[in-house]
Design goal:
Elements (H helix, E strand, L loop, with lengths): L23 H17 L14 E6 L5 H12 L3 E6 L11 H9 L5 E6 L4 H6 L5 E7 L5 H15 L6 E5 L6 H12 L3 E5 L15 E2 L3 H7 L2 E4 L15 H8 L3 H6 L4 E3 L12 H4 L6 H25 L1
Parallel strand pairs: 1-2, 1-3, 3-4, 5-6, 5-8, 6-7, 8-9
Helix pairs in contact: 1-5, 1-11, 2-11, 5-6, 5-11
Length: about 325
């Protein structure tokens, strides 16, 4: 088992529910710890004992691939026992309430909950009925703080610092918990945040967000040091929020011509990717793209957050 040498930074939170709860110091504590894990190794050959003797519940009430696997892998790398909970195969399908399910699993002796839920605020609600630590793995259209943190880690690795950097978030901002989480963290670290989206996919009131509104993809490319491109959710087409995917691609999609016009432009995407819609295949795999790096950083960020929360257990 491996151990990390620098354990001096204290993380003053019992839960991680929202990006808005994190100070600049908190963010840098998490990203610094994540970089330590990356330096020491996060593969199967590198295991830590920071969560040894702890049980982590992976409770995904909404479908996920990247986030669920990343969290569970991170917990196992830290030495935790992982209990994977599937809502469709549980007593919830028989009418048991969410809080009754929570109390039943808590009674088995667990320590940390990793929760994704389709309803905004569900994770915070659960945290009010439990003694455990909670990590929000995405709740409705509200927050996805570890996705925001892995985006921040990826940008810090690339730029060194984010003060004064221009980062444009492109796509379905209205329905995106990623956009809300990442934008908050960027502004906390001193970056300038831009939005680019059709009017139907912008928040109804973003005046309090202190963002720069870009009108075209060309304007966004010219303004930005980096683009964080969001998935266009095809189900939104049924609600008439977009005329067609082809038109969206024409006016908002990122193409090789944009990278050729600005070779140093950073490209990011939380996945999964709709090639030919929000981003072309060759852009996603260009040297300026850090999409796969984001996936790797997701494991390290989630290891860092769980390790920091576990240290709070030890101080009690």
């Amino acid at each position: 088992m491996l151990s990390l040498n620098s354990m001096t930074n204290i993380f003053p939170h019992k839960h991680l529910l929202s990006s808005s709860q994190l100070s600049r110091s908190d963010i840098l504590t998490i990203t610094s710890r994540a970089n330590e894990f990356i330096s020491n190794g996060i593969s199967a050959a590198h295991r830590y004992d920071l969560l040894r003797g702890k049980t982590v519940v992976s409770a995904f009430f909404e479908g996920s691939t990247r986030t669920k696997l990343s969290f569970e892998l991170a917990a196992r790398r830290l030495g935790a026992d992982v209990l994977s909970f599937t809502a469709s195969a549980s007593s919830l399908s028989k009418g048991e309430s969410l809080i009754d399910t929570l109390n039943t699993i808590d009674a088995m002796g667990v320590d940390i909950w990793l929760v994704r839920h389709s309803h905004s605020g569900a994770v915070e609600l659960m945290s009010n009925f439990s003694h455990c630590a909670f990590l929000n793995a995405g709740d409705g259209q509200h927050q996805h703080p570890t996705q925001g943190l892995l985006d921040i880690l990826t940008m810090l690795q690339h730029f060194g610092e984010l003060d004064g950097k221009n980062i444009c978030i492109v796509g379905d901002i209205l329905h995106s918990r990623v956009a809300r989480s990442t934008a908050t963290l960027l502004q906390t670290l001193g970056a300038n945040v831009g939005f680019l989206a059709p009017g139907t996919l912008l928040p109804h009131d973003y005046s309090h967000w202190n963002i720069t509104l870009l009108k075209t993809i060309d304007a966004a490319v010219e303004w930005a040091d980096g683009l964080n491109i969001l998935r266009i959710q095809r189900e939104r087409m049924e609600g008439g929020l977009l005329p067609s995917l082809e038109e969206y691609s024409q006016f908002y999609g990122v193409k090789m011509i944009h990278l050729q016009s600005k070779p140093n432009l950073l490209i990011m995407h939380p996945g999964p990717v709709n090639y030919g819609v929000e981003i072309d295949h060759d852009v996603a795999h260009a040297t300026q793209s850090l999409i796969q790096k984001q996936v790797t950083n997701g494991v390290a960020i989630r290891m860092a957050v769980m390790a920091l929360l576990a240290e709070n257990f030890d101080r009690k």
